[in-house]
């Protein structure tokens, strides 16, 4: 249940038994309360005088005058004080009575009345009520008796008023504490997020947005251990852009960077979600493929990669090598990488030889035509 669904009495968990106990603490008996009600007519006749004198005295204090602020507020406060005094001498002390006292405390706390100002005001109100009793009761002993009851009754009221003051202050402290906790949590989350971003940045190649060589050394050993643990194959595909240095020299670094981005995008687009793609050198890329045999990489992955690249740039070619670890014989990550690198250079040599053969065939054809 929300706070707004509960009365102040319910929020403070005040019961009938607690009320009786508090009356006992302030030595207020049913007969005492009956005695107070016997002088309600005296108080009623002097009510306007009491209220007027009270606020004349209060508004002499600059802090109080500033809190009141205007004539309309003063008029409402005077009306509220009249009702409070009437209730003090007429109303039954029950949970409704307590609710009203708690609300007095809540209102005064909300408008910023300092406790010392409230207590001094209550003290002055006591003096005016006791003075009224003394001036209108001929028997001095009975007047003192009634004055003592009034003193304890108002203290009883003030105890509930300050319950609300204290509860409000505790709520404010709790709110500020929660704000502090939330701020710390938000700050920790922000730091964690930034740390993750920084960690990610240290693992990513800024040009291609693939993992870098540092990330390769960090991630792959774990993948190889998992493959061996689960008795599954794992393959490394080593990719090199053919004649990249001469391309760079001829077309410039900006065009060379564009080529690397195209190649990396093609690698990423044909790789599976479980594959990890890395840029490990200037024009060299590595794809680690868990649960993939060398034959599958050669049959499926490489043709898709070359086809994807050819659909974008026909003037680029790749040399690709593949090496497998497991499930019969498990190699270390570095040994598998070395084998994939070696396989790539073998294929690069084949590509160079194939290109040379094509050129020789073209030249031979021209010579025959000229003959």
Summarize the structure.
The chain contains 15 helices and four strands. It has 371 residues and is of the alpha+beta class. It folds into two domains: 3-182, Globin-like (Orthogonal Bundle), CATH 1.10.490.10; 213-370, Alpha-Beta Plaits (2-Layer Sandwich).
Q: SSE layout and pairings?
A:
Elements: H1 8-11, H2 16-25, H3 30-37, H4 40-45, H5 47-58, H6 62-68, H7 71-90, H8 95-110, H9 115-136, H10 140-203, H11 213-229, E1 234-241, H12 244-251, H13 253-270, E2 276-279, E3 284-290, H14 294-310, E4 318-325, H15 333-370
Antiparallel strand pairs: 1-3, 1-4, 2-3
Structure description:
- The chain is of the alpha+beta class.
- The chain has 2 domains: 180 residues, Globins (Globin-like); 158 residues, Reverse transcriptase/Diguanylate cyclase domain (Alpha-Beta Plaits), CATH 3.30.70.
- 72% of the residues lie in helices and 7% in strands.
- The protein contains 15 helices and 4 strands.
- Strands 2-3-1-4 form a 4-stranded antiparallel β-sheet, with helices on both faces.
- A hairpin with a 4-residue loop joins β2 and β3.
- About 2% of the residues have low confidence.
- This is Diguanylate cyclase DosC.
- It comes from Vibrio coralliilyticus.
């Amino acid at each position: 249940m929300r706070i707004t669904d509960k009365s102040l009495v319910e929020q403070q968990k005040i019961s009938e038994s607690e009320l009786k106990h508090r009356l006992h603490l302030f030595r207020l008996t049913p007969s005492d309360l009956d005695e107070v009600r016997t002088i309600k007519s005296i108080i009623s006749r002097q009510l306007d005088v009491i209220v007027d004198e009270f606020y004349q005295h209060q508004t002499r204090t600059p802090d109080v005058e500033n809190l009141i602020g205007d004539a309309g507020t003063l008029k409402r406060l005077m009306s509220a004080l009249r009702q409070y005094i009437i209730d003090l001498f007429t109303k039954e002390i029950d949970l409704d009575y307590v609710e009203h006292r708690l609300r007095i405390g809540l209102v005064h706390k909300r408008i910023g009345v300092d406790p010392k100002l409230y207590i001094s005001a209550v003290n002055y109100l006591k003096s005016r009520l006791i003075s009224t009793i003394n001036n209108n009761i001929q028997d001095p002993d009975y007047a003192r008796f009634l004055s003592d009851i009034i003193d304890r009754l108002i203290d009883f009221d003030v105890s509930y008023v300050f319950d609300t003051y204290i509860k409000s202050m505790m709520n404010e402290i709790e709110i500020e504490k929660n704000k502090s906790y939330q701020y710390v949590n938000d700050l920790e989350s922000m730091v964690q997020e930034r740390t993750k971003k920084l960690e990610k940045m240290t693992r990513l190649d800024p040009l291609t947005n693939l993992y870098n060589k540092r990330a390769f050394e960090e991630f792959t050993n774990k993948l190889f251990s998992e493959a061996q643990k689960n008795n599954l194959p794992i393959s490394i595909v080593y990719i090199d852009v053919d004649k990249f240095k001469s391309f760079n020299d001829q077309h410039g670094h900006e065009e060379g960077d564009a080529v690397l981005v195209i190649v990396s995008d093609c690698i990423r687009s044909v790789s599976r979600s479980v594959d990890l793609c890395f840029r490990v050198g200037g024009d060299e890329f590595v794809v680690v493929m868990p649960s993939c045999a060398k034959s599958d990489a050669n049959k499926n992955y490489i043709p898709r990669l070359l086809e994807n690249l050819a659909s974008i740039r026909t003037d680029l070619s790749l040399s690709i090598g593949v090496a497998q670890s497991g499930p019969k014989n498990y190699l270390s990550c570095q040994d598998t990488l070395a084998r994939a690198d070696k396989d790539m250079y073998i294929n690069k040599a084949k590509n160079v030889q194939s290109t040379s053969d094509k050129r020789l065939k073209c030249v031979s054809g021209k010579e025959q035509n000229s003959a």
